[in-house]
């Protein structure tokens, strides 16, 4: 990139270039007098998806250069430091985060992900009370809303500060406003909030939380009010069979999905009809080899539903069984449509003998 612009008179006018392009700018060519300007323009760059794995070392090098440029000598970043570093704050470890100016919190909201250490530091900073979110004693439902994407990473211990109704109302709001989150993110959020709700019905063999009906399932927060024991006690086989699509859309945690799958098997004497296999969604990911061998997978629509990556990844051994079941049906083969549905990672699970049956034209 530098070779293309080095003859230009405004080569150090960094505002002329997209932030992501500046990631590849040769920093050794940045005049010391212009380094702050360089990092200010770099603040909005995507430090995570732009660099290939082989170039990730450049992220660390950029931070080292930024520290030198800005005269950062401690792990206590000022508001100005945070402003100039911008999205580079997502690279910081917990020791920087918990000791820095509270404005770092707003920068961290833009991070594609947070580590456990970073999240712990965020909680420490929040609990200090010297942030826009106020003292912990004043936190309420609006606080959770204002925390936004942070709530996807906060541990159950954080949610203990809020009562059940506040958490339920917040979860309903969050699922509506941030509907584009991944299933894994939704699973994590629901799990942490549910674990923060104390229950006196962990071991009882009776349903005390209320029989689960179609109306219960329609609540966006379902099954928040049911611990694993109550979910099992209050969910009938017939309700699972009649509301499978709605249930698998709402239920995310694996232990709950296992109960759904078990009750569905009970409904059909261990046999799950193909039209219901299509509706398993994330519940398919908790199936065993024996479960899958009992399924009918004859239609490409069933294969497509099972291979939907939004429901999670597959264990390679299970992919083999699914493909074998599909190919065992007369007339079925792995054409271009099937290969696109299965996807690259899952194709690597196929036996050599199966791969040999695929026409080279279908790989195009």
UniProtKB/TrEMBL annotation:
Compartments (UniProt record): Membrane
What biological process terms from GO does the record include?
cell-matrix adhesion
Its Gene Ontology cellular component terms are: cell surface; membrane
- Pfam families in UniProt: Mesothelin
Could you identify this protein by its name?
Mesothelin
Similarity section = Belongs to the mesothelin family.
PANTHER family the UniProt entry points to: MESOTHELIN, STEREOCILIN RELATED
Tell me, in one coarse class, where this protein mainly resides. Answer: membrane
Q: Could you tell me which InterPro entries the record lists for this protein?
A: Mesothelin, Stereocilin-rel
Q: Which UniProt keywords apply?
A: Cell adhesion, Glycoprotein, Membrane, Signal
